[in-house]
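Hi all, long-time lurker, first post. I run a small reading group and we've been trying to get comfortable going from sequence to structure in the token notation. Rather than ask abstract questions, I figured I'd post a concrete chain and ask someone more experienced to write out its structure so we can walk through it together at our next meeting. Sequence below, copied exactly:
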Amino acid sequence: MKLKRISLLVLMLVMSLVLAACGSSPQETFTKSVEKTAEPADQSTTTIGIKVDELPATLKADQSAAMLEGLSVKLTVSDDQKQQKSAATIAVKTAGLVSLNVNLDLLVDSKAEKVYFPLSDLYDEKGNLTTLLDQLTSGMFSKIKEENPDLVTKYVDLSTLSEELSGKEAKKSETDTKEVEKATKDLSKKVTKTVSDYFNSLPEDRFKEGDNGEITLNLTKADFTTLATKISELLDDKAIKADLKVIAESQGVSGEAFDKQYKSMAKSFDDAIQSVKDETNAKIDVTVTIQPDKNDNIESMKMEVKITDSKDKDKPETLGMTITMKTTDSAKLPKFPSSSDIISTEALQKIISESTASYYKSLYGDTNTDTTEIQ
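-- Answer (accepted) --
Happy to help. Here is the structure in token form:
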């Protein structure tokens, strides 16, 4: 059964539609709305939600995959291009083998090349993060929180975390920020054009307009394999490769490593497409509904995805999920931390070490308080 591989390809394509998305006919309005996403507003807030509605029996039987049952992920990103700052909040919930209810925040200052994580997220009792961390640390996490209530106002600078932990100075990227921005925009425009050109090639009667102005398009397995092939063909474009290389190098990937991996990545993508084409028992149905605003920008989008494997005629298996996106042309960023609000990794390690020693002393007395091996 190739349901996992098919699901991966469909997810990848659905997310590229989200990224591309993220007085006209329904088809023209639909396509125009998609094209406009390549030109984001100076300020914007985008919320993307993913919810697993149905999990096939074979995945439920797989312990690692069973964690996906009831999965709900909500990502909200507020971006201010003029300030070169953004804030992201991710909320994760599951109802399967492992119960998760976690909210995490990140503050990104692109100009200063800083990423901050507020420790207040670890003190928030609305979810079950404390319970999960206590299970991993045998209750030590609650002890650290109890003994250090002032940490609730502090932030960790994640951009320097790895070098502080390793004791080595991180190698700074020599890639110009403007080059990365240009490469990202060029890449977005080309992917968006490929997607919108495909939508324009479809029969007009496939686009249905509702009473509230929403436009719906149903996509099939044939649509996905055709669109995937067109996106795959982009990888043969030298300009596309150059843009991806600029972005990869800005993330610390060497140019040599990227060149070696690029050809392999393209082949893997083509193999996945062929695998879906060859799987005659697989059926893919995706219903895309967009709500354009008065300027034909996408105000909201909803994708209902259903992947069915009917190899076993008596027990067909289905993976179902719903993906939503909502965008507004405004961004309310939280206050970013000052230098006095940031705690160094060294100071944080000292607090953890002292709390660990205190914790083991309370359990075993003075004979087992050496925490030099506990890192």
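A couple of things your group might point at:
Residues 143 and 355 are 7 Å apart (CA to CA).
The longest strand covers residues 43-54.
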